[in-house]
Amino acid sequence: MIGAFQQTRNMLLRFGKGVVYYGVADHWVTVATGQTILNPMRVVPNGSGCEIVFTAFRQPGVSDESFANDTAMIESDLRTLKRIMEK
């Protein structure tokens, strides 16, 4: 997905250009308010598989509850990715 866009969960996702070649899967999420947030993500080789490293930065003014909900969605998405990749 080089420079790909995807609309999901009332958000627009945009991936950077390095994803295929360097294991960089950084992506920007544009939420309903129009705010765009960078989510750094790396795919790191590990033996016959890989590790995914995802960084979730808490944005200014985000409540504990909202941040917990956001990270729970991220965790769910990462579990889905793991399940798909291990097939």
Q: What is the string of SSEs from the N terminus onward?
A: EEHEEEEH
Q: How much of the polypeptide forms β-strand, as a percent range?
A: 25-35%
Number of helices: 2
Major sheet characteristics: 4 strands, antiparallel
User: What is the first-to-last residue Cα distance?
Assistant: 21 Å
Helix content: 25-40%
User: In angstroms, what is the radius of gyration?
Assistant: 14 Å
What's the average pLDDT?
81
The helix/strand class is: alpha+beta
Poorly predicted spans: 1-7
Strand order of the main beta sheet, please? Answer: 1-2-3-4
Shape: globular
Q: How many beta-strand segments? A: 6
Explain what you see:
- The protein has 87 residues and is an alpha+beta fold.
- The protein is built from two helices and six strands; from the N terminus they run ββαββββα.
- The strands form two sheets. The protein has a four-stranded antiparallel β-sheet with strand order 1-2-3-4, with no helix packed on it.
- Strand 5 and strand 6 form a beta hairpin.
